[in-house]
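Exercise (ungraded).
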Amino acid sequence: MTDSLDQIFVFVKHWLLDQLANVLPPAIMPLVSSVMSLLPVLVVFPSLFALTTVFERKGLGRIQNRYGPNRVGPFGFLQFAADGIKAIIKEDVVPRAADKVVHFIAPVILVITALTVYAVLPFGRNMVAADFDAGLLFFFAVGAASELAVFMAGWSSRNKYALLGAMRAVAQMVSYEIPLILSSVAVVMITGTLSLPKIVAAQSTHAGLLPDWFVFTPWGFAGFILFLIAANAELNRSPFDLPEGESEIIAGYFIEYSGFKFALFFLAEYLSMFALSGLGITLFLGGWNAPFAALEFIPSWAWFFIKLLTMIFMFIWTRGTLPRLRQDQLMNLAWKFMIPMVLVNLVAAAVWHFTGPGITRWFTSGALVLGAYMLLGKPQFESKDIGKRTYRFAD
Amino acid sequence: MTLPFAIIAILIIAAATAAMTLRNLIHSALAVAVSFGGLALAYLYLDAQFVGLTQILVYVGAVAILIVFAVLLTRGGEAPEKSVFSASWIWGLLITMSVFATLAWSVLHSFASQREPAEKVGATVKQIGDALMTKFVLPLEVIGLLLTAALIGAVIIAMRDESPKTKMEDGRSKMDKSSVPSSILHPPSSTGGRQ
């Protein structure tokens, strides 16, 4: 029973494929199979986007001591429908000076790249659309292409604020891509594979009370925190939302977009948030594995989505709690703290791997990570000597 | 020649042609990015996953961005009024044709073209890693050293000159003493970076 519930989507797909094989020519069956693997992704995650916008507004409202949306539907939970209808029927204004073609293509590329990365994420046991050898590399490669889309959006708008926002976004994404990738490399070093299903399989055992998730190791814990920070910056979400910076550059690179194209930017941002959360879950939080053997009756895909919702909640919480960084603080954090930390973390992972099982590796690896934090992080974060704020051009 | 290869080849050539002929420099840079992506597709089609994906990660994700930034920071990015073609294009065509003919002739008659194609090996990421860490570890380290040196050199060139003489000459000397973090991007001064 538990097995059939666990594999229900896989069974349904195979049954449908068998039925279709009688009607359709065999030449197009591989195509049909791929489409059937991808359709659920195209349905589930945009729906999750719709729900998350409401949850985010409600959550931010709770944090900021107000109600949030409370007019449409019960407790305002149908707000996303109203937002969607508004986005569709709004006029699509394109500035006269804008570069029409690039202006049109940019949000499309952004959504396509945000959706493509889902191909390699394992959502459950045997539930991955494309299981290939270099899955993790695919994820980062496709993600890197979105930077160009952001730049295209900012440049084609012919707006100073948009160009500033795009410059900020690209500088930020390029800087934080390095810690993002390097924190994942520690996992690759330990598991010896770039295939995401195999990384999940490496975390499926239980050692004593805790499961063998990488977050429960010294290097994995540090890696997970660094991954979260870098992912937050990569998504341009608060506290790293300088590219949007509504109080300084109004909305950044999508200032000149309206109507449905604006909604596409939002869709792409949230889709990338889910994808990066899914990657974090896959790399550090055991993927679709249950935390305890006793809880394995809950299907694997349900575990994935429970963890995904937890991660989304954390992102919303961070956004509601932390103030925005300044541009120099942002860059200092990336280059003076994050990158040295991930490099030390790689050494810690190597020490962990070569020390062999036992208590020693906990001490050596943990001491490395903790020592690096004490040396790099604490002096930077605790120094009160930030200095008086000076204005170069405004005084 | 198979159909997928033909599609990829047409994509690459069309994008490269667009990169040469488009008037707007940013458009050209974007077309170059498309042709980088086409090359990546070609690698993926040849079953070289690692090379193909790295091509996207490095070229589309970093090199194209670099080109675009370089264009934006050096000139306005406005499209030129007159044609982008040189007046003596016919001579250029003749020279390129003759160079191409020479190269093609020598390649077709070379020893390498007579060889049997090697049997297909699927180069997995693991194999590439093993090769880099055993057989090619010295070249890898040398390249690493070279890139580090280049990085440090770039930082030194970009760093502000802190000598007192420049401070006196520079009209913004008061601001330099203030605690503006050095990571803030400074606008280029009229005297240039280093003297």
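Further reading is listed at the end of the chapter. For now, observe: Residues 4 and 106 of chain B are 29 Å apart (CA to CA). The mean pLDDT of chain B is 78.
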